[in-house]
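Quick one: structure for this chain?
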Amino acid sequence: MNILIVSGSPRRGGNTDIMAETFREEAAKNGHQAELISLSGKKIAPCLGCQYCFSHDGQCVQKDDMAQLLEMVDKADLLVLASPIYWFDVSAQLKCFIDRLYARGKKGFHHNQAALLLDSASPGVYDAAISQYKAICAYLKWEDKGIITIPGMKQKGDMAQNADLEKVRQLARGL
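Got it. Here's what it folds into:
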């Protein structure tokens, strides 16, 4: 299986990246092609809603890093979205990526499976992100392969010692 993992953390090497890399490593150990893309440092403009993509085979009018990411999405069998929770939802970087998936709204997606990895400092802050993810999966008829939430991430690197990383490994092994 070709797996694309997209980390929406603006902080390279932080807790979300550790979680996403753990998923990537475990998926690769289990025979999958797994690639992790960090949105940190990528130039992805917000969707303009112009629908240029609908009349141009999914090509966006904007010329930024999203063009390459859409090509990667087109090759994926499973899309894994990873994000820290900032103010009760996914990061702005991941939300921009999700909005720009609109370019495939008419053309469609190769993959029909997705998973969600979330971390936060506080427990109980995941409802909005999970609701959005479930709505996307339902609308696009993507099979939800799993949702992992890991609270308690107060300092950069806390994830590396967190026992809940085993849940991430189990999800990757179960594919």
